[in-house]
Amino acid sequence: MPTVFRSGCGIWGDFDPVRGYSAFCLAVPVPATWQWFETDAPTAGSDVLGELLGLTRSWVLQACVDAEPSTTKLARTVGISISSASEHAAVLRSAGLLESERQGNTVVHRTTPVGQALIQSTRSRIPMIAG
User: Fold this and answer.
1) What are the tens digits of pLDDT across the range 32-72?
2) Shortest CA distance to 115 belongs to which of 78, 61, 53?
3) Domain boundaries in the chain?
4) Are strands 98-103 and 106-111 parallel, antiparallel or unpaired?
5) Residue 124 has pLDDT above 70, yes or no
6) Both ends of the chain: CA-CA distance in Å?
7) d(Cα 49, Cα 119) in Å, to the nearest integer?
8) Cβ–Cβ contacts within 10 Å for residue 40, how many?
């Protein structure tokens, strides 16, 4: 498990007389700056879409506007797990804001006309994510 909170590697495990040693957590340090943990407090009305959908879900929707990302690419773009990206996409799909299409082993997501209209109506007022 990558971590920014340890300076060295750590391993946690257990010993069972029958099974022997087993490791259940390996922590590996990764370089980070404190800027990663700093957040800008949004001003009133600065993220209308985030207030409506939730910040992560609004990022997922925005990530599908100018591209048709796979679930994996969507997760990387937004910075969430693949399962979380899939779950957020499912909620947005059920709300009629996203369409998803299976292409071989991947699922590709795109905004619907309703999703496009929602984003366009708030785009000038919300911070966009890097994609």
Assistant:
1) 655 555 555 444 445 677 778 888 898 899 889 888 999 99
2) 61
3) 2-36, 45-125
4) antiparallel
5) no
6) 25
7) 8
8) 7
Compute the distance between CA of residue 121 and CA of residue 106 in angstroms, rounded to an integer: 30
pLDDT at 123: 62
Question: How is residue 63 written in tokens?
Answer: 């990530």
Q: If you compute the radius of gyration of the chain from its CA atoms, what whole number of angstroms results?
A: 19
> Can you tell me the distance from the alpha carbon of 63 to that of 50, in angstroms, rounded to the nearest whole number?
13
- 45 close to 99: Cβ distance less than 8 angstroms: no
Assess contact for 63 and 69: CB atoms under 8 A. yes
Tell me the CATH number of domain 45-125, given options 1.10.10.10, 3.30.1380.10, 3.40.50.720, 3.90.280.10.
1.10.10.10
The torsion angles phi and psi of 99, rounded to 5 degrees, stand at -120, 145
Tokens of 88: 């957020």
